[in-house]
Amino acid sequence: MSSEVAARRDAKKLVRSPSGLRMVPEHRAFGSPFGLEEPQWVPDKECPRCMQCDAKFDFLTRKHHCRRCGKCFCDKCCGQKVPLRRMCFVDPVRQCAECALVSHKEAEFYDKQLKVLLSGATFLVTFGNSEKPETMVCRLSNNQRYLLLDGDSRHEIDIAHISTVQILTEGFPPGEKDTHTYTSLLGSQPASEGGNARATGMSLRFAAPGAESLTQLKLTAGEDAHASRRQSTAWLAAMHKATKLLYESRDQ
Ligand SMILES: [Zn+2]
Ligand SMILES: [Zn+2]
């Protein structure tokens, strides 16, 4: 990829919406896969009362829209201003209690896990049925759209083309030794919260451009240096959180 193309992919611009200032990708096609669209606001005439506490709106009790769900609330029920990075807001924005809770959790992803994913980690990588794993650095691209694999060969996987992700863990369920358990990401506990479970690898399937069937890719945390092993484990845990966000937004 040329640096010119890379710069084009990462270019951003400021836009003002009724909800606040947003920093969005210059080219819509290069938006983050974690991004969410702004909701339609419930029209004023359809909500004479707060949708949480039922207070009637008047001159004293003013109406506010939650920036995340677009519903109408009084100031008391919608007073929290919380960062909403998934909608590209520059500043924290007004949200109802339910949405604020979700956004707080996501803020942790942006502050911690996303940084881990962007900085990358080293893995033994196997493509398809290949016998020979290759040592590669795997990281998320700056615009969050691609997994970049860098070793003797280089690969770029579009996040939007990934159909399934499984985290390979060991030490789970408790009591069983040396069993490797594949944990599906949908509806499962993150490896880091699963008691003894520790992420050791990841298996994913994606549609490569031009290929008719799905390609399988397996990443395994290497056994060599202790420090890089820890980095790989952290990267896998971060990828687990990222995948949950992606599936949640695909389901909406
Ligand atoms: Zn209220
Ligand atoms: Zn809300």
Automatic annotation (TrEMBL):
Residues 44-99 form the FYVE-type domain. It comes from the Eukaryota. The keyword Metal-binding applies. The keyword Oxidoreductase does not apply. InterPro entries: FYVE-type_Zinc_Finger, ZFYVE21_C, ZFYVE21_C_sf, Znf_FYVE, Znf_FYVE-rel, Znf_FYVE_PHD, Znf_RING/FYVE/PHD. It holds the Pfam family ZFYVE21_C. PROSITE patterns: ZF_FYVE. One of its GO terms (molecular function) is zinc ion binding. Keywords: Metal-binding, Zinc, Zinc-finger. This is Zinc finger FYVE-type containing 21. The gene is ZFYVE21.
